[in-house]
Amino acid sequence: MIALHPNEKILSVNRKVWYVFAAAYSVGVGLMLLPFIIVPTIGALFPVIRETPPLITVLFLTSVLWMWCIWVWLFLSFASYYLDIFIVTNERVVHIEQKNLFNRIISEVRLSRVQDITITIAGFFPTMLHYGDIRIQTAAEVSEFAFTQVARPERLKELIMQEHRHAVSEENALGRKSIS
Amino acid sequence: MLIPALFLFIIAASTLLLLTSVITAHFFRYGVQKDKSRVIAFVFVAGSILFLSVSSVLFFSIPWNALPDLIAVPNFSL
User: What ipTM goes with this model?
Assistant: First the structure.
């Protein structure tokens, strides 16, 4: 779980849109169901297998192991989708990039350091399905935050800009207090 | 024939179980507050346990030592 500061609240948790991965999941489910076609076909082609129960069991065992492999592969790819997160809190923006199972990049920027936000919705499908990329220019060491294929990027931009204004006004108020 | 088959089965099952535990740990450790990562992890583990139990039952129901006679594999041993 992400560690939050005291009084910090998560405002928005964003992942890539699920339909970007629909093709990969369909392939996975198709591969998982493949034994339901192959086993009867083998049975029809080789009657000796059909007439020998232990051989049918061997085929079933192979099928179950195959389905288990695809099950693990599906969740492996799902992990890299589900754990790739863009979080907006009332203090900062956190981008967690799960490249693969053992490659994870976490970068964050304080909202007051946000300078410009650019959203890109390019192409027929992104326009129709309301998803796109968001790029945040910052005054921090990491000069740009990019999160691709996020749903409703314009709403996310508005949220970040609104929280940025709050953060800047709070910092200014604190600055005035410390001077006086 | 039972020993090679058992050896292969143990290697396959343990590799898949190891991957299952690593992926589950990722979902538990790297989820965000109030998301569904724990539910997903439980579904994944439940599926893997189901596959493990079904494959174990199938494996032990196969008469491995009688298989070569059933499929008429020639015996080349001296």
Answer: 0.86
pLDDT at B8 over 90: yes
Domain ranges of chain B: 20-64
Is the Cβ of B17 closer than 8 Å to some Cβ of chain A? no
- Give me the half-sphere count of Cα atoms (radius 13 Å) on the Cβ side of residue B50: 10
**Cα–Cα dist B13/B78, whole Å:** 34
Contact A61 B58 (CB under 8 A): yes
**Is B5's Cβ below 8 Å from some Cβ in A?**
no
Which residues between 19 and 78 in chain B have a beta carbon less than 8 angstroms from any beta carbon of chain A? 19-20, 22-23, 26-27, 29-35, 37, 40, 44, 47-48, 51-52, 54-55, 58-59, 61-63, 66-67, 70-71
The pTM of this model reads: 0.84
Is it the case that residue B74 has pLDDT exceeding 70?
no
Verify whether the Cβ–Cβ distance A54 to B67 is below 8 Å.
yes
What span, in angstroms and rounded, lies between the C-alpha atoms of A157 and A134?
8
Report the top-level CATH class of A10-17+85-179: mainly beta
What does the block give as tokens for A66? 């195959």
A146 close to A86: Cβ distance less than 8 angstroms: no
